Batch of 4 targets.
Target 1
Amino acid sequence: MSRIFGDIRQAGYVVKDIDAHLRFLSDKAGIGPWFVARNAVLPVCRYRGREIRMEMHAALANSGTHQIELIQQVSREPSIYTEWLARFPGRSPLQHVSSWEEDFDGAVDRARDKGWVMIQEGRSAYGPFAYLEHPDDPDVVFEITRKGPERRSIFEQIAAAAAGWDGTDPIREGWPKAQV
């Protein structure tokens, strides 16, 4: 556990072709099932202090208790995702690790106290999120999300689906409905 960020629960990858990565990870790595939200538009998103329109495809699956996220940006505005793809052309290295915090503001404040800088922040339908980098190593990106009841419910359903997954129906459109 990180004293600053809490438990690291997710590894996130930014990709150019989400469907190709979904097929690869389900077929060749046996990870799934994947739950995919397509053309999701964030109600609020700021990149390096500037409001942007963020539309993306996002996919989630679990391997044990660890969640994997794939993100493909659909909108064309500069963002943390376009920046990452430009930094690593032709590759899809790990882009971020994420913690899910009940005390979102406290986690962001602890990170800032240690010199972490906000790169992108916003709000999804399930609460706030923040991506932070440190000037000492900007290739290390942490995401903090608020773990409210809706997000908790969705993540628990994704983990449960993975625990008993037999390889059938590897790519499922939409995310589970929050049960709160």
Note: The chain has one domain: 8-164.
Target 2
Amino acid sequence: MTNAPQGTGPLGLDPALLAILACPDTHHSPLTVDEQASELVCGTCHRAFPVREGIPVLLLDEARRRSA
């Protein structure tokens, strides 16, 4: 069970926003949600972008590399 307010998507993000978010790197791949880690993950470059207080931080300098 998630602590997200009712009517919102995973990590408290608006589902419409999640539908358009993409990796800020040059390939612009869609991001998937890792609720347990509170991150948005790029399936192409395997970067994980943190979500802090319901705000996705899509800065390449803030992302961490995950193993493929």
Note: The longest strand covers residues 47-52.
Target 3
Amino acid sequence: MSTTPAGWEGILNEGETILWQGRPGHRLVIGVGQIAAMIFGLFFSGFALLWMILAAQAGGFFWMFGLIHFSVGLSIGVLPPFWSAWSRRHTWYTLTDRRAFIATDIPLMGRKLKDYPIDTQTPLTWDDGERGNVWFANEYRKTKNGSRKIPIGFERIPDARKVYDLCRKVKSSAE
């Protein structure tokens, strides 16, 4: 008889056991970086709105060219904090005695399951708080001037210290 939990058949390796499962907090959180982006986006869309009003007074449909700028400004100013909360609402976390899993099921983008091995080379960090973070990997994303490092881990979890301690035990048992 298999000891693999239902739904994990074919995903977990032989003898791999689940130590913890959880979900991130999905409350709306607005950070300092997002406030700056929101101000810029709202200023951008406000300028586009002003331009559209002035262009509409001249007559014709030329004012409609401002709609794309208005939309882009709104999406820069309003979307990021809501997208972050919405994507966390569709995310699940699992920690086994060998790997960390991050599963997402975002409508129109599909289901994704990524696993990250926890071994002696894994950079473990922990941010405490009401909803803490446990970081165990890094991803590099291209930018206009090169690339930037993005931390990967369990974000905004209520029992971050406990999960961090479990990750440390997994890391030390990998030696």
Note: The CA atoms of residues 80 and 138 lie 21 Å apart.
Target 4
Amino acid sequence: MPPFLAYDDKGPRNTRIPLLLIHGHPFDRTLWDPQRDAFAASRRVVVPDLRGYGTSPVTPGRVPLARFAADLEDLLDALDVRTCVVAGLSMGGQIAMECWARLGADRVRGLVLADTFPAPETPQGVRDRNAMADRLLREGMRGYADEVLEKMVAPHAAPEVKAHVHRMMTATDPRGAAAALRGRAERPDYRPVLAEVTVPALVVVGADDAYTPVSDAEAMHALLPDAALRVIGAAAHLPNLERPREFNGALEEFLARVDAGV
């Protein structure tokens, strides 16, 4: 049976550990184009569209983070990827935490958490996410995309980066975005999960991220038993697109360590 998710599967099958890249909301797998292109030269890189995003099928209603993680496990099984480094940004970072809880060290050899946080939703946050889901279903994505663009990326970001981010957001199916928002509102507390991570981790954050500020990244870094923290200057919520050279440098250093088994 073919995989449920749309995906890119690039790079050589060699001794280097494959890399799984998980995008955030409301984006698609092209969020990771600078990383896919850079790292597929030397290792296998798998980049899916999450359920409800990009060209993957939409499930209306509510999609919890555990469902996203189960989809990714099914994709790895279908592609015969037995072990990998799991990297996620924003909501994708929370899905990466869920993947660790689900798969453990037998399959996850390293964890990259970018511009994300592990705490559960607050009561107000639950209301806000459900209200936003209602709004997206009612109005579509464009108004929301216009409002948040210069919070997703810094105002001084390159015009082509802004255009890419806006295009991803407006192309997202509102039903998929709403279902993810409702599921994410009910997410568990991943802080105890992070405290038990037994593999190397990398925490990355944009210095100007207003959604998940540096203080959140520092707190998450402190929870992880074996983690490095990298703050990317002159970037907001999407440093992998805003400052790809700096982001890729941090990721390359981390992957070299995981490959070496240090």
Note: The chain has eleven helices and seven strands.
